[in-house]
Design brief:
CATH topology of the largest domain: Aldehyde Ferredoxin Oxidoreductase Protein, subunit A, domain 3
Largest sheet: 6 strands, mixed
Number of helices: 27
Number of strands: 16
Shape: globular
CATH architecture of the largest domain: Orthogonal Bundle
Helix content: 40-55%
Radius of gyration: 23 Å
Number of domains: 3
Length: 627
């Protein structure tokens, strides 16, 4: 077995209360790395088309990669892969904390959970003795994620659900420590299996091909991160909400259910405001990560809790026209305790508010008014009253009550907090990303509109090229499994230090903007490992890894996801954006919205897909994608 892997998959049958270990397939690991990639390969091969996402035939796959279990900064996330109850297509999410590290210490690469328990159950995995215990969880059923974890064995690391997962809210997540695998409804799948928690422990060591080289290079990377303007400064000081003022200034922060891109009180929910007025105690991080992007804030009657991330302050703040960080922090706490994705929650709440504004449905909450929101969030998590409707997400609500033109989702997944009318490449990414309207499956907006080196976000140059490169890279990153923030360090300090008005900045931006196909060509070269994750993979596995290798592997994973979605009934018709985004302008001089119709054919061509968005046989053969 190549190094960096435990070499084992743990399979659990909840219905029969049985478990077994089987070897990791080495060739699959070479082709798909691990994490999301290996998990997608398993999901495709294990299931028949058309299964019920909330039925016993849908497996829930916890997956690590070869970087997990090491001390590499930002390397200890795990992936969860399943069929999504929100979209009906591929479902996946990643989560930080320390659960991935514990899985590898337990000598496990992937945990595949099949079937359904007749009663609430939790699982404990003691890796040192290969013991798997099925424990009655009726005493924990109905409890929040914080109380649940507090009652579990302290020596173990846990992945748990709250009431939202138990009640199969379609955007429920899986919580570990204070982090959440939030998107695509993975927590609802876990709840459908009557599985409350998975706990792991072990003391096995990760074997590396060149441990000395890994150790010395990791010291260098920590110094790079320490000096980097984002990883060592803005993320450390302000957290992810550091970009609130950037997105607001560039008219792309969601406001009033994405009707606008600017909110006058955005500063009051920004990372800078959080640092000055709300931050308490020591900032937190995932295991072995020096960035410490986590926040702690104080809530009256609750105490010290995790502060909200950018997506949360945008979707539960500006998008609801609420400029009150204490209220957003409160709602973030309740969503985490219930085990619920704050992006889909905020998108669904804003859709419901617009339904009420238009007289289409009485929901009891309104834009700009926090009254009733806390109670409605609780009702959603417990599927009480109207909360039962919002638990289905904005797509299903629009099909029942109307309002499809302003239901802000792609493929059933609510959009994250970047308005693509001011970030065209991000719009292409939203439309084509396999799990739906998500930004962390590519983060194209960082390359064109919110990062330190930005191009014109509203012309057509590179807008069908950047998403391909970024989606491929994200697939590889989520298969290692590494934090997407690690990619921020690719842009050197010198670029950050340049004035946007300087000649050098404008020249570099213009050169980058006109690269076109050279961008994809340059990233596809299989040369020497250059970026830290390439070197880490090489030192750990012994397999040479470069940007070209990772672009190929990422494209393989992305195309397999695409084939899964096609198999499940999704098509090119689902590669679209909400009508509001396509038709309603938000910038002076715009005659309509996002020009997706002009960019999508270019994207398909760049991907090696036909005009109907289907990967060609040549493309699948080149990438070794077996379907």
């Amino acid at each position: 077995m190549i190094k960096g892997y435990a070499g084992r998959i743990l399979e659990i049958d909840l219905g029969a209360r049985r478990h077994s270990y089987r070897p990791l397939h080495e060739e699959t690991a070479r082709l798909y790395i691990g994490g999301k990639g290996y998990g997608t390969r398993l999901l495709y091969d294990m299931t028949e088309p058309g299964i019920d996402p909330l039925g016993p035939d849908n497996p829930l796959i916890f997956a690590t990669g070869p970087l997990n279990g090491s001390v590499a900064p930002q390397s200890n996330r795990f992936a969860v892969v399943t069929k999504s109850p929100l979209t009906g297509g591929i479902g996946n999410a990643t989560c930080g904390g320390s659960f991935a590290y514990a899985m590898k210490r337990a000598g496990i690469d992937l945990i595949v959970v099949k079937g359904r328990s007749a009663d609430p159950v939790r699982i404990e995995v003691e890796g040192d003795g290969d013991e798997v215990r099925f424990i009655d969880a009726r005493d924990l059923w109905g409890k929040g994620t914080y109380e649940t974890q507090a009652k579990l064995d302290k020596k173990m690391k846990h992945a748990v659900i709250g009431p939202a997962g138990e009640n199969r809210v379609r955007y429920a997540g899986i919580v570990s420590d204070e982090r959440i695998a939030g998107r695509s409804g993975v927590g609802a799948v876990m709840g459908s299996k009557n599985l409350k928690a998975v706990s792991v422990h072990g003391s096995r060591k990760l074997e590396m091909d060149d441990a000395d080289a890994f150790k010395e290079y990791t010291k260098e990377v920590r110094e790079i991160f320490k000096e980097h303007p984002v990883l060592g400064s803005s993320l450390k000081r302000f957290g992810t909400a550091s970009i609130v003022n950037t997105t607001n200034g560039r008219n792309i922060i969601p406001t009033h259910n994405f009707k606008y891109g600017h909110f006058d009180d955005a500063m009051k929910v920004s990372g800078e405001y959080m640092e000055d007025h709300e931050l308490v105690g020591v900032k937190s991080s995932c295991i072995h990560c020096p960035v410490t992007c986590g926040r702690d804030v104080e809530l009256e009657g609750i105490g010290r809790v995790k502060g909200p991330e950018y997506e949360t302050v945008a979707l539960l703040g500006t998008n609801l026209e609420i400029g009150d960080l204490k209220r957003v922090s409160e709602w973030n706490y309740h969503a985490d305790d219930l085990g619920m994705d704050t992006i889909s929650l905020g998108g669904t709440l804003s859709f419901a508010m617009e339904l009420q504004e238009r007289g289409m449905l009485e929901v009891g909450v309104s834009f700009g008014d926090p009254a009733g929101v806390t109670e409605l969030i609780q009702d959603i998590g417990h599927r009480r009253g109207l909360g039962n409707e919002l638990a289905e997400g904005s797509k299903r609500m629009s099909e029942k009550y109307g309002g499809k033109d302003f239901a802000m989702h792609v493929k059933g997944m609510e959009l994250s907090a970047y308005d693509p009318r001011g970030s065209y490449a991000q719009g292409v990414e939203y439309a084509t990303t396999n799990r739906g309207g998500c930004h962390v499956q590519g983060a194209s907006m960082y390359m064109e509109s919110v990062g330190p080196l930005t191009i014109n976000p509203q012309n057509l140059k590179l807008k069908a090229d950047i998403p391909v490169v970024q989606q491929n890279l994200a697939c590889a990153i989520n298969s290692m499994v590494l934090c997407i923030f690690s990619t921020y360090g690719m842009i050197p300090k010198a670029i950050h230090d340049m004035s946007p008005n300087s000649f050098q900045y404008k020249l570099i931006a213009k050169i980058f903007e006109n690269l076109g196909p050279l961008l994809r060509l340059g990233m596809s070269v299989k040369g020497r490992p250059m970026i830290w994750w390439e070197k880490w993979l090489t030192y750990i596995t012994g397999q040479p890894m470069s940007s070209g290798h990772l672009q190929e592997i990422g494209a393989r994973i992305f195309n397999l996801e695409r084939m899964y979605n096609l198999r499940e009934g999704l098509s090119a018709a689902d590669d679209t954006l909400p009508a509001r985004i396509l038709n309603e302008p938000t910038f002076p001089g715009m005659k309509s919205g996002h020009p997706l119709g002009e960019l999508l054919p270019r994207y398909y061509k760049n991907r090696g897909w036909d005009a109907n968005g289907v990967p060609t046989a040549k493309t699948l053969d080149r990438l070794k994608v077996q379907v």
